[in-house]
């Protein structure tokens, strides 16, 4: 698909495919933009894409040994020989590629082709030189000083970019190896300091000898092209190289066909509705920074608020019942569950201190931490509940098995419990991502928290029922599922409009 775009552009503008590729990469594969900018001012486009040097002329002449004054005659007698290596010699370069002297297509393609095919066009002529014109021999036997390794070598060992900066091929190769080692590929620049002209792919591939490095380079450039394409994404799944395409680049859920990883198509992180891409990044960064502070929350056990016996959470449900004293309480806030079940569910809402603006800096910092921990704890709890889901499913399977053995229905009669568990996971996932949203949100907070609380209450109900259901409860359970899913979609519709 990338190659198709390259070919199309290359024929349309009559430019080489490699140039077309660089230009497309630069404009995030916006063919129309390339064509328009190219036709308006090709030179500008090439400079901004860093294919050509910005300065109209005056490339700093590379250190060069004194050459006989006849050198200027070389070009005059051999105007056809494209001699990009000695392009920096005044006069010699006049016919090919001093930046700024000409901006038309042919000069660009001829300069790029002369770079790639350089080794062949410029063979030393050797002993036969006596029969050909002396001036040509003088041209090809000319030597040059490489400013990097500071050795004098024959000019045909040198390669120059369109900026006319010329270095010996060993130094170029070394430069490429180092850059590729750092993961740089399409952005490898000229070795001259303060010159940001990019090295054409052809030159890199010509000068790299080790096949492993060439492979690496090609992988990296390909990855760069994919990353620059707005409609393409690499699957973020571990060890998955699948490329996923979508013409709609909104923050919607994408699922990899190979490894089933689900992610946000726009930003590539785990799918995060109703939180948007910037906020989720901010939140995840904050969590990473504050991981120390939040670590103490990670406990799997808490004490029963009534009899103080240690209780382990081993399922998703926040409605806990102490095995010792049968007290019903909320895992999150340790409050009496009665207040959660029947009355207005407030466990998810953070109550800010209304006078906090007048408190000391110290108190404000404490309050800020308290607020963060409130949201973090709920975010983390849903995430953990989801991880415990496999255990919940295993327990459910065992329980159903027992029931079926006792003749209490068939497996088909119990199938709806698995559907309920799937829905539960979906709702928990959405709920998890409501907490970063609520943490940062400023307007419409009341409505959001209301809907969030409703969804929390519904799924706690559902969760409790799923773990204790009998066949006769099927109708009630399905009703509960219906309500939970409606709450979920309403919340998303109101606060995350891209997800219909
Ligand atoms: Zn060198
Ligand atoms: Zn340069
Ligand atoms: Zn994948
Ligand atoms: Zn996103
Ligand atoms: Zn207890
Ligand atoms: Zn609570």
Layout of strands and helices, then pairs:
Blueprint: H1 2-13, H2 17-26, H3 31-48, H4 71-77, H5 105-116, H6 118-121, H7 134-140, E1 143-145, E2 152-154, E3 158-160, E4 166-168, H8 169-181, H9 201-207, H10 211-228, E5 232-234, E6 243-245, E7 253-255, E8 262-264, H11 277-289, H12 291-295, E9 301-303, E10 310-312, E11 319-321, E12 328-330, H13 337-341, H14 361-387, H15 389-405, H16 411-432, H17 434-440, H18 445-468, H19 474-495
Antiparallel strand pairs: 1-2, 3-4, 5-6, 7-8, 9-10, 11-12
Helix pairs in contact: 1-2, 4-7, 14-16, 14-17, 15-16, 16-18, 16-19, 18-19
The structure holds zinc ion (6 copies).
Quick structural summary:
With 500 residues, this protein is mostly helical.
Task: Give structural notes.
There is one protein chain. The protein is mostly helical and 500 residues long. Among the domains are: 1-49; 145-230, Herpes Virus-1, CATH 3.30.40.10; 313-496, Up-down Bundle (Four Helix Bundle (Hemerythrin (Met), subunit A)). 50% of the residues lie in helices and 7% in strands. Strand 11 (319-321) and strand 12 form a beta hairpin. 30% of the residues are buried. Residues 146, 148-149, 167-168, 170-171 line the site of one zinc ion. One zinc ion (ZN) binds next to loops. Residues 142-351, 307-347 form the RING-type domain. InterPro entries: Ariadne, BRcat_RBR_TRIAD1, E3_UB_ligase_RBR, IBR_dom, Rcat_RBR_TRIAD1, TRIAD_supradom, Znf_RING, Znf_RING/FYVE/PHD. It comes from Anopheles culicifacies. Its EC number is 2.3.2.31.
